[in-house]
Design a protein that fits this description.
This protein has helices at residues 17-28, 51-62, 77-91, 114-142, 162-182, 207-216, 219-229, 266-276, 288-293, 303-315; strands at residues 8-11, 32-36, 66-70, 96-99, 145-150, 187-194, 240-244, 247-251, 253-255, 283-285. The protein is an alpha/beta fold and 316 residues long. The chain has 10 helices and 10 strands. The protein has an 8-stranded mixed beta sheet with strand order 3-2-1-4-5-6-7-8, sandwiched between helices. A two-stranded antiparallel sheet has the order 9-10. 44% of the residues lie in helices and 15% in strands. The chain has 2 domains: 8-251, Rossmann fold, CATH 3.40.50; 253-315.
């Protein structure tokens, strides 16, 4: 059985829904957990309250686990440092970070004001980035860390959800780049696109849809898979996982069939579109170095130059 005895986890947005399920699962398997939740609601519409985090801590303790509550809002570097300090004060170390905190901001492209957009990015993307920066040196020193960034298939686009899609797509880029830097020092970073009943799902106006999620896609099923991504047993890093209801797959990025014509111009593109858009010849691209290497076949460098270029591309 996968266990986390002796390990410490920070789970943000853990006062309900999927975050609560993540915190409970980690604690059930022996981790000491800092349960972080601002308590402002899934739309960020309420003043903060420590009660949601405290309620989850009470559940963990009632089951014999160890946890502390933290009501700090994510979104700034100062907040990230304060959350990390709270975990260190309580438990002396940090092994696991689950960047789960998020809010919803649906609506047509121009409906929201500037402040709402910036708050949304702060919670859904920037806060997670700052938390990774805050735990990174600690994990590097101990030569071990597991980070799970909660993205969403909403990043692929649904319409009327641009800010959320952009923030969750940003979590993918953050994950892929940090994974390259982290692996040599023992820090593995993955992203998950969960499909689950959650506090956000409760905002859907169609009750039949809400009921379907509740009946078929319990957050506990995502948490059960999440535990493996965060364990010592997991050697995968830089992956985008899709999971829900016991289903698990990996999302990859791929190129279609290419066309390379030295004289290619705007007038020639239409003629090549069928070949370019042919999805029967997909080729997976794992990182920037692989994407750049596709050009070497057409525009060769000498071996020494190419060797120097590859690592720089991986570092971005």
């Amino acid at each position: 059985m996968i266990r986390f005895d002796g390990q410490v986890a920070i789970v943000t947005g853990a006062g309900g829904g999927m975050g609560r399920a993540y915190a409970l699962e980690l604690a059930r398997r022996g981790a000491r957990v800092l349960v972080n939740d601002y308590g402002g609601g899934v739309l960020g519409q309420r003043d903060g309250s420590a009660e949601p985090a405290q309620a989850v801590v009470a559940e963990i303790r009632a089951a014999g686990g160890i946890a502390e509550a933290n009501g700090r809002a994510v979104g700034t570097a100062d907040a990230a440092r304060a959350i990390v300090r709270a975990a260190l004060d309580a438990f002396d170390r940090i092994d696991i970070l689950v960047n789960n905190a998020g809010t919803a901001l649906a609506g047509s492209f121009t409906i929201h004001d500037d402040d709402a957009i910036e708050r949304h990015y702060a919670t859904n993307l920037i806060g997670g980035h700052h938390l990774m920066r805050a735990v990174w040196p600690l994990m590097a020193v101990q030569g071990y860390g597991r980070i799970l960034n909660i993205s969403s298939n909403g990043a692929l686009g649904v319409g009327g959800n641009a800010a959320y899609a952009a923030a969750k797509a940003g979590m993918i880029g953050l994950t892929l780049d940090a994974a390259i830097e982290g692996r040599p020092i023992g820090i593995l970073v993955n992203a998950v696109m969960p499909t689950s009943y959650s506090r956000m799902i409760e905002q859907i106006p169609d009750q039949a849809t809400v009921d379907w999620f509740r009946d078929n896609l319990a957050p506990e099923r995502v948490a059960a898979a999440m535990a493996w991504f965060l364990s010592r047993d997991c050697s995968e890093s830089g992956r985008i996982w899709l999971t829900g209801g016991g289903r698990l797959s990996s999302l990859v990025m791929a190129e279609t069939g290419e066309v390379c014509e030295p004289g290619l111009d705007a007038e020639r593109i239409a003629a090549h579109l069928p070949a370019i858009l042919d999805e029967s010849r997909l080729s997976v691209v794992h990182n920037q170095a692989e994407a750049g290497a596709r050009y070497f076949a057409h525009f060769p460098w000498n071996a020494e130059s190419q060797a120097d270029f590859g690592p720089d591309m991986e570092r971005g």
